[in-house]
Amino acid sequence: MFLSRSIPLLLLSFFLLLDTSFGANPLKHICFRRDNYTSGSPFKTNLDSLLTTLVSKVPPSGFGTSSSGEGNDQVYGLALCRGDVSSSDCESCVSDAGPELLQRCPEQKVAIIWYNNCLLKYSKMEFFGKIDTMNKFHWCNVHDVDMDFMEFNRKIKQLLSNLTDEAVAGPKLYAYGELGLGGNKTLFGLAQCTRDLSAYDCKTCLKGAIFDLRFCSGKRGGRTVGGSCNVRSELYPFVDV
Q1: According to CATH, what is the number of the domain 15-128?
Q2: Which of 44, 63, 97, 216 has the smallest count of CB within 10 Å of its CB?
């Protein structure tokens, strides 16, 4: 398990503005404060090496894992860019994420940060291939939906379930799509996992993330963002296609 904290539901009035941010403003970060390293220590040297490796390794495909060091000073890391993000924009996001996380979580051996375009996490513990169910947060569109909310919730589940099947069948574990609602309304959705997960674990993670969108029932959109997967739905397109 990567971290042992969960993040409560966040209902933010600037939710819609986040789509115009481009990596400079993190969505959220978490620091695990029970285990520290010291400045100049072998762990810090290994962490700096790890972050440099991820900046070069991740952008070509949008995902990468790496480790640096050995024994008690070994550190493991992972970075993922949203499936539609270009290599150059992915590199920019991952490049920003490392220094930002070091600043926000000084001398912490375990930390994670999310942006619209990417996530980055590192840990003293090897976590590859394991679903991170504890570290997630939820954001809801502040506006209520102007149709029967029970039917709207069913449409969200239908779209995201279809995108889950599409994501786990593809090499990037990512899918984005839309569903017509009638009356010139279209629902847009996204599903994505970190690519260290198996298809089975990706589906398990996404099903849990979809279930968590119950917190946004009756709202025009919402997202569950986690350390291993994320889902989102909105009544407007929110990625580049």
Answers
A1: 3.30.430.20
A2: 44
DSSP 168: H
Residues in the chain: 241
| CATH number, domain 137-234 | 3.30.430.20
| Residue keyed to tokens 């220590």 | 41
What pTM value is reported for the model? Answer: 0.89
Q: φ and ψ at 125, to 5 degrees?
A: -105, 140
Q: Which residue has the tokens 């990706």?
A: 202
Band (5; pLDDT cuts 50, 70, 90): very low
The whole-angstrom separation of Cα 48 and Cα 41 is 11
Where are the domain boundaries for CATH 3.30.430.20 in the chain? 15-128, 137-234
pLDDT in tens, 14-48: 333 344 334 369 999 999 878 899 999 999 999 99
Bridge-based pairing of strands 63-68 and 136-140 is: unpaired
174-219, pLDDT tens digit by residue? 999 999 998 889 999 999 999 999 999 999 999 999 999 999 999 9
Q: Distance (Å, rounded) from C-alpha 219 to C-alpha 14?
A: 15
